[in-house]
Amino acid sequence: MTDLSHCAVLKAVKQQQASDQHLLPDKRQVAASFSRAASSYDSVADLQRAVGTALISRLPDLAPSRWLDLGSGTGCFSRVLAENFPQSEGVALDLAEGMLRYARPLGGAAHYVAGDAENLPLCDASVDLMFSSLAVQWCPDFAAVLSEAGRVLKPGGMFAFASLCAGTLFELRDSWQAVDGLVHVNRFRERDDYHRLCAASGLAISSLEVLPHVLHYPDVRSLTHELKALGAHNINPGRPGGLTGRARIKALMDAYEAFRQEQGLPATYQVVFAVLMKPDAD
């Protein structure tokens, strides 16, 4: 590849990253939203518990001296990690300080740190295991997250993450599309972007797969109220402002009924599970 064509490729990659970041929520709004949801989060976090448990089950046998729970939230899986690795030192890190204030009294980690996954306030080669369940989908620059993982992991260390990709909540998105065509549902990266970025990260891919996880609700309001309680309601650029009128809510309900199953109204989450390894030092 010539220098010119190489530059063209780099420019195209940067343009795509800029485009992706423009479509994803602002991190400050994400942090504020989840901080407000700290006290209600665990009461409605069925998906989060199921996904985190599935990610824990994907960890191979290991004995980390220090682990990092990246996007630790209310600390549910910080406490699981502490139980699984009682001799280890745990670090719980989250961008939402409200979540850290909620989690700290419940214990689990030795340290609770407010920080950004794209710019970790941790030393090089200081962590054996990075665990992150349903957090990195909120990071606009996932390449930076992977770069930081490569920096803070010790040689032979592991980055295990679960995230969400495009196709998540397609039933809700399609139903809103039929009503007004505006952005009402959070956007997520394409699954191919996860493969591409992980492959280019310098970390070895031990496993990477996308699995659907479907929850069912008696009605649309139950779903939207749960998303709000989780802090995961619509925080995308381009979302409509103001209150949603009764006529539009009725139209949404009618459109969503086309998806109804015997168990109720489905909400499908496309979950990315990945285990990446930092190569051993030469």
TrEMBL record:
Show where the Methyltransferase type domain sits: 68-161
Q: Does the keyword Repeat apply?
A: no
Primary role: Converts the free carboxyl group of a malonyl-thioester to its methyl ester by transfer of a methyl group from S-adenosyl-L-methionine (SAM). It allows to synthesize pimeloyl-ACP via the fatty acid synthetic pathway.
Which top class of enzyme applies to this chain?
Answer: transferase
Check the record and name the Gene3D superfamilies matching this protein: Vaccinia Virus protein VP39
User: EC number(s) on record?
Assistant: 2.1.1.197
The entry's family comment says:
Belongs to the methyltransferase superfamily.
Q: Does the keyword Iron-sulfur apply?
A: no
Q: Which gene encodes it?
A: bioC
- Keyword annotations: Biotin biosynthesis, Methyltransferase, S-adenosyl-L-methionine, Transferase
Name the UniProt record assigns to this protein: Malonyl-[acyl-carrier protein] O-methyltransferase
Q: Which GO terms describe its biological process?
A: methylation
Short name of one Pfam family: Methyltransf_11
The superkingdom of the source organism is Bacteria
Q: In which pathway is this protein known to take part?
A: Cofactor biosynthesis; biotin biosynthesis
What is catalysed by this protein?
malonyl-[ACP] + S-adenosyl-L-methionine = malonyl-[ACP] methyl ester + S-adenosyl-L-homocysteine
Q: Which SUPFAM superfamilies does the entry link to?
A: S-adenosyl-L-methionine-dependent methyltransferases
Record-level Gene Ontology MF annotations:
malonyl-CoA methyltransferase activity
